[in-house]
Design brief:
single chain; 767 residues; alpha+beta
Length: 767
């Protein structure tokens, strides 16, 4: 350290310029940092559910969809003007960028018998609608199971146009934005032309766009608030522009370095990893605060600036290094996560934390040597009376604190997996409002899909046994809680069989032979007008059908449970050749959430082991290392317990909170223990060493905790639920960490360290 300080002292300008050069060099990669709104970014290419989704898309065409739901006043949807408007809207959707087709009640074709042939007729006849029995048309539409709760709601007042799109995926964010912007313009014009009708937009493309909207909302609403709050706290605590400026300069350089290197590494930001800049900004402050508080206290004693810088680095260097090391270990454990955006988040923050440590140990002291700010009284709480109160009440604090921790930890099982991907977004976003309306009045916006193969191979979907097996599964699914609609090829097959038997309702059943089923299907297909087909129900060689479940509002874990029951039903009733993997956005997120949690448990256990070893090695004491485990890990476990009592919903983002907050929690413990050991080395009794720790490091811990709380508190107000929950739980853990280190840790030290002889001088990481 002495040699290092002499290097800095001889050429502070040079070292400062080197830091700036590293920052600007890293920033050249900012141009390569892209942003993706595609929900598939949350899943690795090896994810089995994503592979099943892609196989489904390959067999039946891409399901990039957009639904424009249209609501009419009660009893006014089936009027000439409104049906004509729907016909025009359907044609307009077909002409949107990248559109491959559109479906609505005006393009729905129903079979009619023409002697021995099948004729397809539109449900809403072409041409002039005046003079038609529109009430009868409405009744027919509401009686058609293939479109009820799909293209038309049960009330008969809400309908929808489903647009199908095939995006090139060369610039996904730009392509998705283009489609959504064009659709919004179309909807606005439609409402202007039809004042009585109201539109709502949902689907996979609006979902992707909502992710981008949430990121933009946070960027322009939360990040400035968080930045301003931290600047204000630093200004009030450090009392002056110089320390505030240099602190924000260091954290700004660290953030830009991380983002620039992320660009060089080809990372792609998503709504989840967009939190990285604010997390880096928040975490980087603590390094500077510890150095600056020691510097200003030393300057107040009449020491010159260079000597004060040297003392500040000597006192804090190893403590800051250890907190950086444990923080990096925590964030690198994100790489055990199965979701790429969270891996990128961990790697970006790890890079930023290392950069912040480098700049705090190089650029910050060089700046202090160059500007030589005078000593000042830090505006913070006088903790001397608080220290006396803790020493006096150590016994009730110790046992009461342990009782509270045990009680909260016992509440951890109250947490359950419950993400609802629709509710990922705050109610202030239009997508959330639209999905809630459509889910209530038209179709279930959550769904589950199966591509069911026919064991007989090409043409096998016409086998009576296959159709009966499919029918049994469909009936079982319809009886499951939360299932609103089940759509598959059988609905069409039964309707065709009825039509070919004089529309006799008793013949609304499956054909009895393969030849008959194949003939019905062929006749119906060739009768459809150009551009219309049944590719969404059956693949090209008739070897697989698509079965789609429209669901009521269900959490992702409820959908996962439904899929597991369905898989068990297949095992019990179907031949192996028919087994299908459930897919769809809800089940994708449901399975990734649980898989992330399970994988992060392994990562967290490894992290705990490494951090424990670091503490024991750093303090060279099993006793001190053992004591440190309680305030290090109790806040995180107790935080999850409190979350179980207050919220109880654990989703994908909370799987990373333990690793995210570990370095923050350890920071408080390391610095308190370092000052405590320092006092013991100087011959102080345990109570005097506790007083010394409060006096020497208490101010810095308060400042850093306030800054961290401000940063993560702002994240908790995010319009994206994954980010908001992460911010909420992180804030809870950070506050609990300060409480544990200010109340429980001193009480434990006073109990376990009752030996009045001071520890060996080598046992403190502060020297």
């Amino acid at each position: 350290m002495t040699r290092y300080l002499s290097w800095l002292q001889r050429a502070p300008w040079l070292w400062a310029l080197i830091c700036l050069a590293i920052t600007f060099g890293s920033m050249t990669g900012l141009g390569g940092l892209s942003f993706s709104t595609d929900y598939q970014e949350y899943f690795s290419d090896e994810n089995p559910e994503l592979q099943a989704q892609r196989e489904l898309d390959r067999q039946f065409g891409s399901r990039d969809t957009l639904v424009l739901a249209v609501a009419a006043p009660a009893g006014q949807l089936f009027t000439v003007d409104h049906l004509e408007a729907m016909r025009g809207l359907t044609e307009a959707v077909k002409n949107l960028p990248y559109a491959t087709g559109a479906a609505s009640i005006t393009t729905f074709y129903t079979p009619r018998a023409d002697e021995d042939f099948i004729r397809s007729e539109p449900l809403i006849p072409e041409g002039d609608l005046a003079g038609l029995d529109l009430a009868a048309l409405q009744a027919e539409a509401l009686g058609e199971p293939r479109i009820l709760h799909g293209l038309i709601g049960a009330s008969g007042d809400v309908t929808g146009v489903v647009g199908y799109f095939d995006l090139p995926h060369r610039e996904p964010g730009q392509e998705i934005g283009e489609v959504n912007a064009a659709t919004r313009a179309l909807a606005a014009q439609f409402e202007a032309d039809n004042p009585a009708l109201k539109t709502y937009m949902i689907g996979s493309l609006p979902f992707n766009q909502a992710m981008a909207d949430a990121a933009v909302y946070d960027q322009f609403h939360l990040f400035p608030v968080a930045f301003g709050a931290m600047v204000l706290l630093l200004w009030l605590s450090l009392r002056g522009p110089n320390p505030t400026f240099i602190t924000m300069a260091v954290v700004g350089m660290a953030t830009l370095t991380a983002l620039g290197l992320g660009g060089h590494l080809g990372m792609r930001l998503t709504t989840a990893s967009m939190a990285a800049p604010l997390i880096i900004l928040t975490l980087s402050i603590s390094d500077c605060v510890h150095v600056l508080t020691t510097y200003f206290k030393t300057r107040q004693q009449g020491v010159d600036a260079v000597a004060a810088v040297q003392n500040a680095l000597r006192v804090n260097a190893l403590g800051v290094f250890l907190t950086t090391l444990t923080t990096v270990i925590g964030f690198l454990s994100f790489n055990t996560n199965d979701s790429p955006p969270f891996r990128d988040l961990g790697n970006l923050v790890a890079i930023g934390v290392v950069a912040a440590w480098v700049y705090a140990m190089v650029f910050l002291p060089c700046w202090l040597m160059i500007t030589r700010p005078a000593g000042r009284m830090l505006r913070t709480l006088d903790l001397s009376r608080f220290a006396e109160w803790v020493i006096r009440h150590q016994r009730p604090l110790r046992w009461g604190g342990m009782a509270v921790v045990i009680a909260l930890v016992s509440a951890v099982p109250l947490n359950h997996f419950g993400d609802d991907y629709v509710k990922f977004f705050g109610k202030e976003l239009q997508f959330r409002q639209d999905t809630e309306f459509v889910s209530q009045h038209l179709m279930g916006v959550q769904y589950l899909e199966y591509g069911v193969p026919a064991p007989a191979g090409p043409g096998g979907v016409n086998e009576p046994d296959y159709l009966q097996q499919l029918e049994a599964f469909s009936e079982w699914l319809r009886a499951q809680p939360g299932v609103r609609k089940v759509s598959n090829l059988n609905d069409l097959m039964k309707r065709l069989n009825q039509v070919m038997h004089g529309d006799d309702p008793s013949w609304y059943r499956l054909p009895e032979s393969r030849e008959l089923a194949a003939q019905y299907l062929l006749l119906f297909e060739i009768s459809l007008p150009a551009g219309e087909d049944i590719a969404s129900l059956v693949n090209l060689d008739k070897s697989m059908t698509r079965l789609t479940l429209g669901l009521n509002n269900m959490t992702n874990d409820e959908i996962r449970a439904l899929d597991l029951r369905a898989q068990q039903w297949m095992d019990d009733h179907w031949p192996p050749g028919m087994h299908a993997v459930g897919t769809g956005v809800p089940v994708l997120f449901a399975r990734i959430a649980r898989r992330n949690f399970e994988s992060m448990v392994t990562g967290n256990l490894l992290t705990f082991a490494l951090v424990s070893a670091i503490f024991i090695l750093a303090f060279r004491s099993w006793r001190v290392g053992g004591i440190s485990l309680i305030p290090n890990f109790a806040p995180m476990l107790a935080g999850f317990g409190l979350w179980g009592l207050l919220v109880g919903q654990v989703g994908m983002s909370l799987s990373v909170v333990v690793s995210l907050t570990l370095g923050i929690v350890v920071d408080d413990t390391i610095h308190f223990l370092a000052r405590y050991n320092q006092g013991r080395q100087q011959g102080m009794t345990p109570p005097d060493a506790v007083r010394h720790a409060y006096r020497d490091v208490g101010a810095a811990l308060w400042i850093t905790t306030l800054a961290l709380t401000a940063g993560f508190g702002c994240l908790s107000m995010s319009s994206f639920l994954l980010t908001a929950h992460l911010g909420m739980l992180a804030t809870i853990v950070i506050v609990m960490a300060l409480v544990a280190d200010f109340l429980l840790l001193p009480a434990l030290l006073l109990w376990f360290d009752r030996d009045t002889s001071p520890p060996r001088s080598s046992s403190s990481p502060a020297h």
